[in-house]
Amino acid sequence: MTWRRALPVLSWCVVFDALRAFFESFWFFGPAVAAAACTLVGSNTTVGGLIGTSAVAAACTAAATVGGAAVAEFTTPFGVIMAMAVGLIGWLTILLIQMVNNAGIFKENFSMILRYALGLLISVTPVIGALPSLTIVNTIMFRIQIKKGQEALARWEEEQATIQREEQLSGAQAQIAEWRAFEAANDANSAIPEEEPLAA
User: pTM value?
Assistant: First the structure.
């Protein structure tokens, strides 16, 4: 595993955490989005052209503030419920992605499963659920997996270097033995005396 391969998963984690934080603070962001939509739509109408964009923006902001305060009893619980739902969907989606593409992240260490469960519990808890727990937990899990992978790669490279050195050493010893045998054969051939010719 590398950070390059982990980046798409972490990007999805950031998206789900941002959506959950949006809904967790829906009591604020709901009226703000309503004001922005009202300003956008209102300034593109004939009335908006007549009274000006800044007047439309001021009217929409005032209406959204009053409306947001009036419906706060509805938007606050709605935001909390949506934040919990988005958090759960996000955790299950990332879990599915991890199980399909990177199941080894859970096999390598049982504590990864506990971290995942703890992060899920934090994300569905109101108020502290706004923390980017999905991104934090998955970043920690990837960091541990990448570190273990680098250590395993270093061990494998060391083993391969040892095996290569041993092969080179045994090859050199075989060549030395072959050379000695060749020299011994040459010495033996040179030590044989030539026969003297017989007298007639």
Answer: 0.65
Q: Which residue carries 């706060």 as its tokens?
A: 72
- Give Dmax (Cα) for the chain: 144
CB 24 within 8 A of CB 129: yes
Q: How is 44-90 classified by DSSP, letter by letter?
A: TSHHHHHH-HHHHHHHHHHHHHHHHHHTHHHHHHHHHHHHHHHHHHH
Residue 198: both structure tokens together: 């017989």
- C-alpha span between 30 and 103 (Å, rounded): 38
Per-residue pLDDT tens for 106-127?
Answer: 776 677 778 778 877 877 776 6
Question: Measuring CA to CA, which residue among 127, 119, 171 is closest to residue 26?
Answer: 127
Query: Distance (Å, rounded) from C-alpha 157 to C-alpha 195?
Result: 61
Convert 83-130 into a string of H (helix), E (strand) and C (coil): HHHHHHHHHHHHHHHHHHHCCHHHHCCHHHHHHHHHHHHHHCCCCHHH
Q: What angle do CA 106, 109, 113 make, to 5 degrees?
A: 50
Query: Measured between alpha carbons, how far is 57 from 62 in angstroms, rounded to an integer?
Result: 9
Element (H, E) at 151: helix 133-191
> Which range among 86-90, 138-142, 165-169 shows the weakest confidence by mean pLDDT?
165-169
CA distance 39 to 58: 8
Helix (H, G, I), strand (E, B) or coil at 142: helix
